[in-house]
Amino acid sequence: MQRKDLLTRILAVSGTVLVWIPLLAPLFFSILHLIRSGQLIFDYLMPAELFIVVLMGAGLLLWASLRVHAYTRLIAWSLGIGMVFLIGSQALAVASGLASGEIEPTGAVWILVLSMIVIYILAVAALAMAGIMLLQIVFKKPDKA
């Protein structure tokens, strides 16, 4: 039985908002900086820096999806893939010397670390879309049968 009560709605809305924040924050701050200085600067690492926000939002989405019995696998897999690639990119950056500045950010290791961060960001985007789909289910009007 699907539970679409107030708690489920609060969990779904809060989780979706929290997951979208790391994706939209770099765009917001880039536009703000462009307006102020006329120079476009985009912080592509901000979604990784705001991982704790993603983790909290994903936890709320997972809880809501368990209550509604929808998109649980998508949310869990997206979170898992995101965590693996984020932790992997950090571990590779530290092990290779990129994180400390020992080596220049060029070459195959740099491309691999950036690719892992891109996959992490795509996993967060999948979480955000799952949140939108979950909201559609949670706020759907019941059919009169």
Mind explaining what this structure looks like?
By secondary structure, this protein is an all-alpha fold. It has five helices and no strands. The protein has helices at residues 6-37, 46-49, 51-68, 72-96, 107-138. Helix 1 runs antiparallel to helix 3, helix 3 (51-68) runs antiparallel to helix 4 and helix 4 (72-96) packs antiparallel against helix 5. The longest helix has 32 residues, at 6-37. The radius of gyration is 18 Å and the shape is globular. The model has no long low-confidence stretch (mean pLDDT 92).
Q: What features would you highlight for this structure?
A:
145 residues
In terms of topology, how is this protein built?
Layout: H1 6-37, H2 46-49, H3 51-68, H4 72-96, H5 107-138
Helix pairs in contact: 1-3, 1-5, 3-4, 3-5, 4-5
